[in-house]
Write a structure and sequence with these properties.
By secondary structure, the protein is of the alpha/beta class. A 6-stranded mixed sheet has the order 4-1-5-9-6-10, sandwiched between helices. It has a two-stranded antiparallel ribbon with strand order 2-3. A hairpin with a 6-residue loop joins strand 7 and strand 8. The longest helix is centred in the middle third of the chain and has 14 residues. About 30% of the residues are buried.
Length: about 230
Amino acid sequence: MIDSISILAVIPARFGSKGLPRKNILDCAGKPLIAWSIEAALKSKYVTQVLVTTDSEEVANIAKKYGAWVPSLREAYLAQDQSSITEVVKDVLNNMATGFSYDLIVLLQPTSPLRTSEHIDAAIKTYIDKKKFEFDTLVSMYQIDSKCLLAFGVDKDSGHVYSHYDMDLKNPRRQNLPDCYTPNGAIYIASTDNFNGFYSKNNIPFIMNKDVSIDIDCHKDLKKAIKALCK
């Protein structure tokens, strides 16, 4: 706990995955993929409770084996490809057992096995130190090549290209481009009070290195993560 703030870590792990079947419980460097996130959350100095939300009894049993709390199985309508993580988290908060309440929610996707307890604690501290408004949220990110700002689209009617961004294209020198970042899916933080998602007008960035920002979506990603974890 930090500053008497109670924090619930939520790890969403539905069973279905089209790109990589049974993804969340596949072996990853000697343990189920989800175990890396559970263990990182349990080692956090600030997280009060670690909860896994899943629609699968098999995933639930594995999560419990590694020390997570699985109060109940998720409804099937919240475990579809189109199900939003916002609705999943709202469901967790709405169905929280009597007597359990938390100030912050930290979402940890199981597809980020290189995210450690140190990253989690640093992100929590960043959020608490920088939060100014009730609806401030935190999203972990890593820096990407700023040349993405030179991306173009093609107008379907005229056939001409147009810039996706308002850039001075007369002299688009790379060193003049601003730094760019993209979410890596590892850590999201928000207040549980009137929770309405992790993206807001007041997003606080938590910058992580690219080499620990692997977000597993396919076999190639899994191989990269295993290689990194086995170093």
